[in-house]
């Protein structure tokens, strides 16, 4: 679970990727998925 969340966060926070080049809808969907994974029960 942590690996998936980490990958999502890296995709959102990586400075090499300009945020303006990504569609806001896809960005919001990725952020929501990261939150869902983060809040998922561990185990």
Helix and strand content put the structural class at mainly alpha
* Count of extended strands: 0
- Helical proportion? 55-70%
Radius of gyration equals 11 Å
Number of domains: 1
Number of helices: 2
Query: Average pLDDT value?
Result: 64
H/E series: HH
Describe this structure in words.
It is a single chain. The protein is mostly helical. It has helices at 2-13, 24-39. It contains two helices and no strands. Helix 1 packs antiparallel against helix 2 (24-39). The longest helix is centred in the last third of the chain and has 16 residues, at 24-39. The radius of gyration is 11 Å and the shape is rod-shaped. 0% of the residues are buried. The model has no long low-confidence stretch (mean pLDDT 64).
Descriptive key words:
mainly alpha, 43 residues, 0% strand, single chain
Characterize this entry briefly.
Residues 1-28 are annotated as: Disordered. The chain has 43 residues and is an all-alpha fold. It contains two helices and no strands.
């Amino acid at each position: 679970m942590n690996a998936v969340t980490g990958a999502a966060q890296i995709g959102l926070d990586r400075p090499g990727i300009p945020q303006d080049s990504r569609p806001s809808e896809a960005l919001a969907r990725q952020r929501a998925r990261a939150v869902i994974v983060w809040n998922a029960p561990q185990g």
